[in-house]
Design goal:
Blueprint (H helix, E strand, L loop, with lengths): L28 H22 L5 H8 L3 H4 L1 H24 L1 H20 L4 H15 L3 H11 L2 H30 L4 H22 L10 H5 L2 H10 L1 H29 L7 H5 L5 H18 L1 H19 L4 H29 L4 H55 L12
Helix pairs in contact: 1-5, 1-8, 1-9, 4-5, 4-6, 4-17, 5-6, 5-7, 5-9, 7-8, 7-16, 7-17, 8-9, 8-14, 8-16, 12-16, 12-17, 14-15, 14-16, 15-16, 15-17
Length: 423
């Protein structure tokens, strides 16, 4: 087993044979149930979150609003999601991870049904804002659950499968809704997705085993959560991983945000429907995230993380071409590199965090969504002032910073000593 992901000063030892029962072992029935359940959780969260993105022009027409106002359907949800991640990680320490994740998924699905029936724009926005607030109960808790329950040698694959579920959900939420709009009204499509994800939430809670390790003691109820977050931020390796998540997400969102503008303009002149199909690249992310997690378990997270960043850099380079097939190939390659990097970084958080893993996961996701909102939007300034070349240069800078942070993290990890055999 490769253990180069363990921190040099960590008190987390390599599990002894006698301690195997404390973990969910790769290949066991419980491990398979956890992997499938967390894939479903990722799917539900991101399909609900991003299902409105292809509907923004429809909202503008139906409610008589401008394009900027219509974008609130997505930005309010993501904004409330970022805030609720911190709150949910605290509540899960008290009320339990499994129940919190199911409640979050079920409430969000019901609110999607309510949004589909909203009589006016303001009611619709309230439902979407509350939906984002509810969805925060899944991402940070899912990462912490996996880190606490799954044996370290199988953590990468299970985390990768969860990230693959988020990729699949994001793709279905965007592409699937676009296809359904050709046949059904937008309210019907949103209602159908809400009903589907409510069924997914039920399947999730039936599959996911109750956690073995989380103890909801009085100490957990009276803990100073700010001190826990400060403690994680004071660990330089952990902070570096947070930074990697922020920066690589910024690159990914910036490229996807402004590739559409480029492809719809000459010399490509693609239609909006054709441009929207670039989100099908997410299917490569599903495969890449699961494969990266398994490779990280075998070869070490540092090596696979550098590989993911190299792939992302190659993808950005291909998008500089003026040939449409190479541009599309570049977006696909970047997507693969992004999901490799995100899968490895997110699984590394649970191994580097020394206690309060839910708080560490919430900080990673806070940085991750900050990269989406701040750096993704900042890419627009480069697009407006320098075209695609400037967007690519901006992406190179962010990825170079990721490489520096990855070197810092990897240089401070070492193999944990092998457990001594008893006489």
């Amino acid at each position: 087993m490769n253990t180069d992901t363990l921190p040099a000063t960590s008190c987390q030892p390599t599990p002894h044979a006698a301690d195997e029962a404390a973990w969910v072992i790769p290949g066991s029935a419980a491990y398979r149930r956890i992997s499938v359940a967390l894939f479903l959780a990722g799917f539900a969260t991101f399909s609900l979150l991003y299902c409105v993105q292809p509907l923004l022009p429809v909202f503008a027409h139906e409610f008589g609003i401008g394009a900027a106002q219509s974008s609130l359907a997505l930005s309010l949800s993501t904004g409330f999601l970022a805030f609720s991640i911190l709150c949910a990680s605290v509540l899960s320490e008290r009320f339990g991870r499994r129940g919190m994740m199911f409640t979050s998924m079920a409430i969000a699905a019901v609110l999607n049904l309510a949004a589909a029936l909203a009589p006016d724009w303001h009611s619709f926005l309230i439902a979407r804002a509350l939906e984002g607030l509810g969805l925060g109960g899944v991402p940070a808790i899912a990462m912490a659950y996996l880190a606490e329950e799954v044996h370290p040698r199988g953590l990468g694959f299970s985390m990768g499968l969860y990230v693959g579920g988020t990729a699949f959900g994001g793709m279905v939420g965007r592409v699937g809704m676009s296809i359904m709009l050709d046949h059904f009204p937008w309210r019907t499509t949103m209602w159908a997705l809400g009903a589907l994800d409510l069924a997914v939430a039920i399947a999730f809670v039936l599959l996911l085993p109750a956690p073995r390790k989380l103890l909801r003691s009085s100490a957990a109820q009276s803990v100073n959560h700010l001190a826990l977050w400060r403690g994680h931020l004071s660990q330089t390796r952990l902070s570096a991983v947070f930074g990697i998540g922020c920066l690589v997400m910024g690159v990914f969102v910036a490229v996807y945000n402004y590739a559409g503008f480029r492809l719809m303009a000459p010399p490509f002149s693609l239609s909006a429907t054709q441009t929207g199909l670039i989100f099908c690249s997410y299917v490569f992310g599903i495969v890449a995230s699961s494969a990266a997690g398994a490779c990280a378990d075998r070869f070490g997270r540092g090596m696979i993380l550098f590989a993911g960043l190299a792939v992302a850099i190659a993808g950005v380079t291909l998008t500089l071409s003026h040939a449409l097939p190479l541009v599309v190939a570049g977006i696909v390659v970047l997507t693969i590199g992004f999901f490799i990097t995100h899968s490895v970084a997110s699984s590394w958080v649970g191994l580097l965090a020394q206690g309060a893993k839910g708080h560490a996961s919430s900080l990673y996701l806070l940085a991750y969504y900050a990269g989406s909102s701040v750096l993704g939007s900042l890419g627009g300034w480069f697009w407006q002032n320098g075209g695609w070349t400037s967007v690519a240069m901006f992406s190179y800078v962010l990825l170079a910073m990721c490489v520096v942070l990855a070197m810092h993290t990897a240089s401070f990890t070492r193999r944990a000593p092998a457990p001594q055999k008893s006489a």
